[in-house]
Amino acid sequence: MSRLFGISLAAILFTFAFGITPASAEDTNARIDKANEMIFIVKQEGILERSLEMVLEGTPKAQRDELRQILDEHIDRKALYAEWAKTAADVYTIEEMDALISFYSTPVGRSILGK
Q: What is the pTM of this model?
């Protein structure tokens, strides 16, 4: 028991010593909201759909319709975007997401997304 207490105390002291603060639920929600905004900008360009089309183009013509149906049935786009938002919120700061949103909203950013 005292070993667990010692480890816990060391972790708390380490956190305070290096200014590390756990993310609050409010901060996490704000980051996920910002990530959803960023994903909306990217999603508007249809990156996922174009990627799926590239997969279909590489599929023999006789099986494309069947594969398209399978992809549509088994890819939950809403759940996929939610996972992307959670991942982006873990990886990027709000400031970084703001910068990405600003960039991808420009003609050059949209051109890059289009390619």
A: 0.59
